[in-house]
Amino acid sequence: MALAATAAATALLLAACTTGPSGTSASSTAAPVTGGTLVYATGDAEPTCLDPHVGGNYPQALVATQYLEELVSRDKSGAIIPWLATAWKESSDGLTWDFTLKPGVTFTDGTPFDAAAVAANVAHIQNPATGSSTGYLALSKVTSVEAVDALTARFTLSTPDSALLDSLTQPWLAMESPTALARSQADNCESPVGTGPFIVKQWNKQQSISLVRNDNYTSPPADASHTGPAYLDAIDWRFLPDSASRYAALQAGTVDVIDNAQPDTIIQAQKNPALSYLNAPRPGASNRIELNSSIAPFTDPNVREAFIRSADVNDAVSSLFFGTATRSYSPLSSAEPLAYSEASDFTYNQAAAAQLLDAAGWTSRTSDGYREKDGHELELTFPVSTNQSIPAEQSLFEQIQSTAKQAGFKIDLQPMDLSSWYAALGTNSYNLVDAPYTKVGPDVLRILFDSAGTVPAPSGYFANHSQVKSPTLDALLEQAATASDETQRASLYQQAQKLVLDGYYILPLYDQQNGYLQQSVVHGLRAMPTVSTPSLYDAWVQR
Amino acid sequence: MTVVISLAVLVFLVVAAVWPDLIAPGDPLAIHPLDAFQPPSAQHLFGTDESGRDIFTRVIHGTRASLLIGVTATAIGIGLGLIFGLLAGLGPRWLDFGTTRLLEVMFAFPGLLLALLFIVIYGPGIVTSTIAVGLSTAPGYARLIRSQTLQVRDAPYLEAALVLGRGSVFRLTRHLLPNVAGTLFVIATLGVGQSIVWASALSYLGLGAVPPSPEWGAMLSAGRTYITSFWWMTFFPGLFIVLSAAAATLLGRGLQQRKRSS
């Protein structure tokens, strides 16, 4: 009873203190103060390249939001709004899109932003030498971009793409100065040049990136709170991978904002008036464990279902996340309006798991209690990228390892750094993997579950980790991507999600967690309604 | 007095290592998610961790791994030290010169760095981290054994044995080793403490034991994330590392003093 009361109190506290998804933090009536340096400490991996066209992961998007901008953006309701493009028009056959660009915008190196620049950026992303994966996959239907006149860029598509505008809101498709792109990739990775409110001044590897204000800034997105240059003089963007030290630094006041906050510290911070919390789950895919259906033992759907039935996720989520995360039963994030859930596929049931394994022929057990068949142990390799998951998540995997053991699965958890993890995926030597994928809109399903997604992008990365190869699913996703009717599109995406869930290719866990903690003296920090990266354009500090 | 207390602590740890179920009959890996993060109480003496595992049970069951790593690593270190030390001490001058230079080069690297280097090449895990710690302590033992050997080598009784026509094996086992053994035993006791700390350090860095095994260093590392909210997750594994290392070291010191005064 006492426990229930505490839980209820915690829930109330959460409800009271949490701002909505993609909300702005601590609103204040005071007038913004100009000047000062804000210290931001990130727990995400340090990018190897600051140009998000190259590769294209979330750590790059986090920092690139400060100095690069996109053609369009999205508001809190999910509607597409103007940014570097003021208007756009789709042809009746859906094969050409004309974008009208904002006049008078220049990149911070003085190069004008025009239609030729847009064409150069798309060409850069599509050039295999760039090694793009996220941007490259998002633009797979774009065959060419031409400059109709200085301020009109025409996109030509191979097939209609209902996700084009959603794709273009993302930092991985940001606009960079063509002059800067013409430099060597090493130079461009070091100091990409955009139209954004801040400029990359210096990158001290393994330590920090210093960003300074762009005094000639003129191009905020339509939903920004002010116009003109940013309030802050500079941003000190630090890499602090250890979550305990990150929170300690915030408490001590040496940093102003941290990301990847641990659930227990979020609860603690909510009791502290000097700190505030901004919750902004990432859009696109839910956080899920993918089951590699291309190699044994998961080639057998019964074994996949058995694993899923034997994993007790709910108890783990409620105890490890202190109510800051909600269990997901969908391939898509709850931030996506078209997300479809099917809770019944994921009920925890050891008896059912045992039956399924018996039926699949995994009948005998080793002395350690693991099941075996034809002399092979029922062993699953699970590489875990320690850069991409917070410790609470790694504990969750340990708990799944423990409950799956009851059914007879032996799970080898292998914690490793990001590059070893990419290598493990590349050699197809994994049975389970948890890989975040952030993209605006349900088109992320095409990237994660279309059979084309098993083929590596130029960066060497492939996104279909469950390696689903289903012609039915491919056809559904193809139809959904070209559908112009919104209800039809929703229904097609629903069918596709149902196929994925019923095929036991994934074990959904919760939304991709994205919690920011900040000093209460920081005002105006907001998470972009696109991919929930923090924007410091409207931010100011009252010291 | 300290020797007696140290001995008592070590005896307790040895019992915990050999018969852990005698002290903590539970399963160190059993999870109870809904009992996670419980503070120490009568039910959970040391509290519970993030998966609701009983920390007392885990610490007790972790003793075997930690002591085994400590003792094995020291044995490897002393074994290698003996080989190199005796070679240098008894061999011809050029061999002494070569071995001593090699040891000096190895001394140039801080011990833990040598261990890290070894793990980078052969991959993390309990076995590699044990060998790594053993390897990196070997130069110290080797130098000590060499100097002990040099002291004894020219002693009259060894000359006498030589004159009497005793073989080299006899001289080694009968005269040399017993002389070196006393010092070696004291140093080894001190070494076990150091090896436990080093092995825990490697596990703490994620280079030793793999989750969810109840190893002290790994537990310390897992608890570190929650240190601001749940102190007991780091305190108790840390306490046992300190206790075992301190007990081994104090016992070693005590034996050292007794040996000197006798």
Note the topology.
The complex is a heterodimer of chains A (543) and B (262).
Chain A: H1 2-17, E1 37-42, H2 58-64, E2 72-74, E3 80-82, E4 85-90, E5 96-101, H3 115-126, H4 134-138, E6 142-149, E7 152-157, H5 164-168, H6 178-181, H7 185-190, E8 198-204, E9 208-213, E10 234-239, H8 243-252, E11 257-258, H9 263-270, E12 275-279, E13 287-291, H10 301-310, H11 314-320, H12 350-359, E14 364-365, E15 371-373, E16 376-377, E17 379-385, H13 391-407, E18 410-416, H14 418-426, E19 432-434, H15 444-449, H16 471-482, H17 486-502, E20 506-510, E21 515-519, E22 522-523, E23 526-527, E24 534-535, E25 540-541
Parallel strand pairs in A: 1-10, 1-11, 17-18
Antiparallel strand pairs in A: 2-3, 4-5, 5-7, 6-7, 8-9, 9-10, 11-21, 12-21, 13-19, 13-20, 14-15, 15-16, 22-25, 23-24
Chain B: H1 2-18, H2 20-23, H3 55-90, H4 93-108, H5 111-122, H6 126-153, H7 156-163, H8 168-204, H9 216-224, H10 232-261
Helix pairs in contact in B: 1-3, 1-10, 3-4, 3-6, 3-8, 3-10, 4-6, 5-6, 6-8, 7-8, 8-9, 8-10, 9-10
GO cellular component, one term (chain A): ATP-binding cassette (ABC) transporter complex
Protein name (chain A): Peptide ABC transporter
Signal peptide (chain A): 1-26
